[in-house]
Amino acid sequence: MRRLAAVGRIADLWSFAGRFRVLHLTWFAFFLSFVVWFNFAPFSSTIGEQLGLDRTQLATLALCNVALTVPARILIGMALDRWGPRRVYAAILVYAFVPCTVFAVATTFEVMVAARLALSVVGAGFVVGIRMVAEWFPPAELGMAEGVYGGWGNFGSASAAFTLPTMAAVLGGPNGWRWATGVTGVMALAYGLHYLRAVRDTPDDAAYLRPRRQGALEVTSRAGVAGLVALQIPLVGVLVLLAWCLQQVGFLSTSVMWAVTGVLMLVLAAQVRAILRVNRPALAGDVPAGDRYPFRSVAILSLAYAVTFGSELALVSMLPTFFGETFGLGVVAAGTTASAYAFMNLCSRPTGGLCSDLLGSRRRTLLVLLVSLAGGFGTLAAIGPAWPLALAVTAVMACAFFVQAGAGATYAIVPLVKRRVSGQISGIVGAYGNVGALLYLTVLLFAGPTVLFAVMGFSALVAALACRWLPEPQRSFEAAHVADIAEDRTPERPIVHALETRA
């Protein structure tokens, strides 16, 4: 029966009514945010030639493009749980217009750096749609819905690479890239205003659950408090690593780098203080049994997403160069060959979510995908010039399937851990995807692609092993949302989502 229902849900994807309307409007918001976020990469060489930027300066712009995404995902997760996804997603898209316009008219390197730093916040928009989709879809359908949201929205990065150069050519002239990037900002502004009017946070008969305390993620045990504090260290550490990278390419002086590091340490201390303040009931052991959730779920899912989405971001960045150097391909041929990886997102991430819905155990589905991913990276580590190019592309596409399906299976679980704080949990897990990407790219910088593939394979095995201790989410295959008693204590709050409520 579950498989028959899944066939019906796949057919319903072509519908534009009820919860599917919200899904389509939301994945397109994500898609557009990624088009804006990645509108620099297609014009990197053109911008460098026109403004006289060297490779170091272009690398600095690429780093700035991701610099603030990690803290932004945490902060946006908090805002999301407080104000709801409709307003937060609309605000992100409207905000994107300003730095996008500044970048399009910039004539100096310094202004471009400021614009790309500001635009890196837009890359955190992914977190918002995770909770929006979870509010509208019941647990039994959540994996597929989140997979469609993540996979089709993620395709915005590939779409930017294919469509923006064409748009620039049509607009013509040496400033074609300025018009193309500026248009993406206008599109984001217009769609943000439309999204604010077109959707609601929940169906008519459902309440939007909010955290009881603001400032940090609510956990429900002393071990959870310790674990949450521990998770902050890599999130701040990756920003210190970014500051070091910017110092290495000459953008920051040594003294400024150490000043930035000092500020980040103060931020870490402030965040730890906020965690302790918000979670006094957990430290005192005063959280009711019915309100508790296992914090190890957050930690394990963060590791899984660092391995899956982190490796995806790293591979998208290095595959064109890898194919070019390994098989002697030109720039266009190498880029076209590597693009097969990005195209897999359209089907593989939804497939990972759908498998999580169908196979009866979300934990086991993720574990199997991670083990398979380890094998895929082992295969990539063996690729060499003697391989037929077609076989190498096939191996990359197979590995891409497990990477993206694993990401889909991860976010089939994330919204089910604790519903009223799912925005913050989604923000932490999503931030670890960026942490993984930066760590993998650092390995690539110092050790090369073969070692990188081996490290990715080993980390996938570690994540798979950790999944043995991942708790299966409660009621994760229910046909309707059933709120925890501890979360919905007031009698006027309904506890069941209508499945066919129209937006």
Structural summary, described in words:
The chain has 20 helices and no strands. It is mainly α and 503 residues long. α8 (126-136) crosses α9 (139-171) and α19 runs antiparallel to α20. Mean pLDDT is 86; it is low at 484-503.
List keywords for this structure.
single chain; 503 residues; mainly alpha; Growth Hormone, Chain: A; 73% helix
In CATH's first tier, which class applies?
A: Mainly Alpha
Give the overall average pLDDT. 86
- SS elements, strand count: 0
Instruction: Encode the helix/strand succession as letters.
Output: HHHHHHHHHHHHHHHHHHHH
Class from secondary-structure proportions? mainly alpha
What percent of the residues sit in helical stretches (DSSP H or I)?
over 70%
- Regions with pLDDT < 50 over 5+ consecutive residues? 484-503
State the helix count: 20
Cα Rg: 22 Å
Question: Into how many domains do the coordinates divide?
Answer: 1
Helix and strand layout, with pairings?
Blueprint: H1 2-12, H2 18-37, H3 44-51, H4 55-67, H5 69-83, H6 85-105, H7 109-119, H8 126-136, H9 139-171, H10 176-198, H11 222-248, H12 254-278, H13 280-284, H14 296-327, H15 331-343, H16 345-358, H17 362-381, H18 389-410, H19 422-447, H20 449-466
Outline of the structure:
The chain has 503 residues and is mainly alpha-helical.
